[in-house]
Amino acid sequence: MNHQPSTAGTTGHAPLPASLAGLLPVSVMLCMIALEYTQAHIFGGLAGAFSVLSVMVFAPRIQTSRLAFVAIGAGLTVWAAVTRPDWTEATLTALERGAMIVALFTALSAIRNAAMGSAGILACGRFLARQPPGLRYTALTIGGHLFGLILLYGSISLLGSLAAESTAKEADAELRRHRIRRMMVAIQRGFASTLCWSPLGFSMAITITIVPGASWSSVAIPCVISAVLMMATGWALDAIFKPRLATPPPPRLPETGRWLVQLRPLLVLLAVIISGVLALHLLTGVEVIGAVMSLVPAAAILWIAIQPRPRGTGRMSWTADRVMLFVTRDVPHYRGEIVLLFMAGFIGSLGSFLLLPLVQAQGLDFGALPPLLIIVSIIWIVPLTGQLGMNPILAVSLLVPLLPSPETMGIPPAALVAAITGGWALAGTTSPFTASVLIAATLGRVTPREAGIGWNGVYILVMGAILSLWVVALAMLL
């Protein structure tokens, strides 16, 4: 995701208006769940309305830079109303697209909230950060990937904080600097690789929505291979460019904890959620995104219910209090993210609707380009726009609808989806405007440019070339 986390704290009660405002994104989520299961457009309209209300309530309390997105969205709406007779339908579609993103974000925030209160999850993170040098990069890459499936960019915050904690007592400044960089890079790349395939992520949810003929089940295996390629390439580059220290590091005692035992809470959680999502998808026929939005909040509530609670507190009342605290305190603290994510989806959808006739009027026909050139270009264009400050949600929503459908190009949808999500993942490691890079920069005490291109410049060149070959192979072989 290409946004900076809210700087608001998560302790103490928010003022009453902000507390009540937390009900709006939750209402968006409930309406989108109903839409997924009933296909009744009234729920899509309600979700869009609740999203607009959310933006109106949250806008006065967000950064000025994010208000610019609200102004652009309003301007595009006026432009559409003045120039296009079918602007109403396009605007409703854009509202529904933005509402879907808000709904998914709210659902995933619920499971992240539950995870951050779990002692078992924190113990998993500390175990990974304690690994000796020979295993640390691999452990944190795998950990960044597994945690990222549940916590999104919160995985970088959690694991990165534990990594910084583990290096803080290192007396050698040179060793400390190299160690924190390598640990943060491993976590970054592990998280970014989830963007290639995860059914819980924005990248996959949005891509399969806008690519005709695509579904998660049909693209999962090629996209999982993309993720494996990303993690393996990151490990290889870390081994090749391992720094040479002026002073050998002090010996460390081996970690005695057993991997399966230490990672059991995280692995069980992932197994429950992913298997539950697939079961819902297969049994009900609802799209994977609908299964995620409905299952994940329910899993979060159940997880909270079984967590340790204060002595003398009933399980039901403890769970209800935690849920209400999430709705009335935590959700409003995500106001900046909610506004930015909704506007990115809205602007991308409505902008592509307005841009298409302009492109056609200029005689530009992307269908005349070789299909292989198109899919390879996508891998490089998405991270390039990230360097310019464009949210991947916005870039993908704006550009992909301008392209011919996979059927028209004569390529399988999986090749185009793998190109889009692969480019999105590369943007997640290099754009100085993404939450993942911003968090890594803060924890590593460097600038966002250094944590992005500085740490991952060679990686994106090598990985971009590998992904380019991979999507070409998919296009030719599937």
UniProtKB/TrEMBL annotation:
Keywords: Membrane, Transmembrane, Transmembrane helix. It comes from the Bacteria. The keyword Metal-binding does not apply. The keyword Secreted does not apply. The chain crosses the membrane at residues 16-35, 42-62, 68-87, 99-122, 142-164, 185-213, 219-241, 261-282, 288-306, 338-360, 372-403, 415-441, 453-477. This is H+/citrate symporter. It comes from Paracoccus alcaliphilus.
